[in-house]
Amino acid sequence: MNHAPRTTRRPARRVAVTGIAVAVAATLALTACNANSQAADDAPSAEATAVQQGGELHILTSSSAINWDPATSQNLAITTLGLVERRLTSWKTNADGTTEVVPDLATDTGTPSDDGASWTFTLKDGLRFEDGTPITAADVKYSVERSFAPELSGGLSYHKNLLEGADEYSGPFQGDELDSIETPDDKTIVFHLDSAYGDWPWIVSMPAFGAVPEAKDDIQTYTTQPVATGPYRVADTVEGTSVTLERNPEWDPATDEARTAGPDSVVFELSQDETVVAQRLIADSGDDASAFGATFVPPAQLAQVQQGPAKDRLVTSGPGALAYLAINTGAEGLDDLDVRKAISLAVDKNAYRVASGGEIAGDFATTLVTPGIPGREEYSNGVNDVAPEGDVEQAEALLDDAGWSGRELRLVVTDDAPTLAQAQAVQQGLERAGLKVKIVPQADDVWTETVTQGDGSKYDLTLSSWQPDFPSANGNIQPLFDSSQVGDGGYNLARYSNPEADDLIERATEETDVDAAAALWVEADQLILGDAPVVPLIYTKNSFLHGSKVENFRIPDFPAYPNYMQVSLAP
């Protein structure tokens, strides 16, 4: 988040590793203000040269397809698309758990103007597409511009709210250019923003900021036949079954400090059942010894893995995404703050966590900004710090004071077994306080339509989880609670609208001083949670399983996902 990630996408769903970002459990190595002078190394790192080369890596995923189009993808910098497509910047994850934004196509992570509203990047020497054509600044400009086309929607789109003139731009396919992106020469690209934005080095690590050659752009086929800039290129696609990558001979490791490119080839096995994947990796035979699961280990298998011979191959992250219950603040009766507080008090977070797999599934959540995000602070608002089992007596009292009508609440969720179990846990907690709750399961695409489109009249409550797309409270707060993110594909699932919150979000976004921005985000966190549009449930932990030949399978503090670009195989 799938999916899910509108200014951003994404709920953290089980296909998240093909495109989801995450919060963290420890302090990050770097923030935007000190990212700007990070320069590229002239040669591959010692780590890259030490990685074992060779073998065929298998990645087992429940996704039925891989979307390689950078305009419509919500993929993390360290996962699928990063194997084939580079961006202006990327993320380097280190053995100590830290993550830093590093130059990728660019020579550094950007040079801001004095007012912070313009950013300049210079491309490295020797960059080529898979056909040997040199990569130019115009290719990067075109890649960003095409993300504005109505025909190519659904991708990460922070930049669409930041670049000057973006509101009136609809892509390059009619011959129009976005004047706020300048390319004075083949190596230089300049972005002009509406206002200062200190997190821009992270924004240009997102898929749209790669390079797409206009002469080879076919929007009907680019999703399956991209033009590679990374260490691999797409060699074969069997629809719904597999995608095979082979080495890209035009990739130069001396220009790339984010990728080690260990395997000779990578095979994505698509449409895999999560439970079957877990059992295959536990068995560890044949190709599965050289495989890892891109989906989380299902709760039902976690106990089996922890107690069996595969326990040394189970890798669990620190606290990551915020799992939460969204309360539709525009629904009948739910516009009453006391009713929303009553719901917050009645929820049994412990039952939810048990349904999610127990303690290994995550830590109880108390704030909207997730652990590890710089500047996060714990606080109490009298509701967020009650016992995990809830406070039924206080919830009942608030409902009585509010004159709650007793109507049935529709809890709309996706129809997969783990989510249904979580929904039942929430349902029983609310019903203890006298609330009537009907669980409405829907297919994933139907659920997305129900909660992100229209007027919100088809649901009262919904379960989701959110992982920021870059390590800033901006990635937690703005996508979920800014009023601009209500409907039209946005993920303000609570349909929350508060001008004071919008003002805080705007001020924090434009603040270039890291400490000052963090203070504003904490203020926004407290204000919003005081309005009880959501119930924070747990900060999820992600558990992944890999085969015995898989090496360098690490989950950093941010994001809480394995770095595909650094995985290698034992001989």
Radius of gyration: 23 Å
Strand content: 15-25%
Contiguous helical run count: 13
Which stretches are poorly predicted, pLDDT < 50 over at least 5 residues? 1-46
What portion of residues is helical? 10-25%
The beta-strand count equals 21
Strand line-up of the largest beta sheet: 14-18-13-17-15-16
Termini gap: 34 Å
Structural class: alpha+beta
Briefly say what this structure is.
By secondary structure, this protein is α+β, with helices and mostly antiparallel strands. It is 23% helix and 17% strand.
List the helices and strands and how they pair.
Elements lengths: L45 H5 L5 E5 L28 E5 L5 E5 L7 E2 L5 E5 L14 H10 L34 E5 L2 E5 L7 H4 L28 E7 L3 E6 L17 E5 L4 H10 L7 E3 L5 H8 L7 E3 L5 E6 L9 H10 L2 H8 L5 E3 L27 H11 L5 E7 L2 H16 L3 E7 L1 H9 L8 E6 L6 H9 L17 H12 L3 H17 L3 E7 L2 E3 L4 E2 L16 E2 L2
Parallel strand pairs: 1-10, 1-11, 15-16, 15-17
Antiparallel strand pairs: 2-3, 4-5, 5-7, 6-7, 8-9, 9-10, 12-19, 13-17, 13-18, 14-18, 20-21
Helix pairs in contact: 6-8, 7-9, 11-12, 11-13, 12-13
